[in-house]
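Researcher: Good morning. I'm working through a list of sequences from a screen, and I'd like to move beyond sequence-only analysis. For each chain I'm collecting a predicted structure so we can compare shapes side by side. This is the next one on the list. No need for commentary yet; just the structure.
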Amino acid sequence: MEKANIFKPLYWLDHTPINAHFSKNSSDFVVREIPLYEFSGEGEHLILHIQKKDLTTTQALSILSEHSGCKIRDFGYAGLKDKEGMTTQYISLPKKFESSLESFSHEKLKITEKTYHNNKIKIGHLKGNNFFIRLKKVLSVDAIKIEQAIKTLEKEGFSNYFGYQRFGKFGDNAMQGLEILENKRKMKNPKMKNFLISAYQSELFNRWLSKRVEMSKFIRDFTIAEITELYKITKNEAKSFKSQEQFFKIFKGDVLGHFPYGKLFLCEDVQSEVERFAKKDISVCGLIVGKKAFESSGFAKEIEDEIFNESYKFNELINGSRRYGWSFLNDVKYSYNSDLAQFNISFSLDKGSYATVVLEEILHRDILE
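Model: Good morning. Structure tokens for this chain:
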């Protein structure tokens, strides 16, 4: 089966593609879940810290279920982790199954710690994830480019696109989601139906964010007169855009959110919000189209309408929300071993962000090639 033509969003950094070999194996790609809160150490729920390789979260739960007798529905987890690579995460199950796991052993799944808590872990109950990535076959000249890209991303942030994982092996998840909304495709499984619809929403978000990256590039590189003509805005508005020192430009009427989580609000005083954006206190939130999404206004909404206009007719069928369009790296570390031609990178991302998106921005190429 041929792959669908997946929309390829713009990179915001300007360097040429960098040569490096990346493989999502357990040695070169490690994901460690960062819990949202400390576990109390007491309560009716057993908390397991598991380490798995080459298993999805669902497969790991099935293995634990078969060994313990605990039903899948009684497990709790904060999020699904990739099958590829080495990943760690916390899961919960009723304390009564603790003794059945004392002899647990599996070649691809380990229980590294255990504690207790009052509540079951629920979806979304994580702060984020820490990632370790090893790049191989990296020449010294390319190592310099990688280091410069990381430094720039650490300072300025990155385009918080949805990663390729959202769009499926053949890249047709978004198309299938649209067909469901248009009533051209039937889907009996409600979870799969919602997932495919979310892929459609995600592609629209990526298109909007790519448009904003393009606009930020034009505003940075074009003259005030050119910006005025291109976007049909006043000279003062163009001057306001040009005066923003950061790459990703903020518009009046943007939906902003306190970062990394907090209430949403409309951007009214652009200059004061630019100052808070520079401190990484707030960020611009893009539209996940649907009836419950917080509405933008003014020029920001005009730009959204260009992308989302055809999808508004589905508003009553989907809830919608907002997602940070621009996000930031934390706990950044990196090193280069010239003898082995290997470049190691580690960083933390808030929940919902993709390490593969960051890596593609650094390398400026499709990492699956």
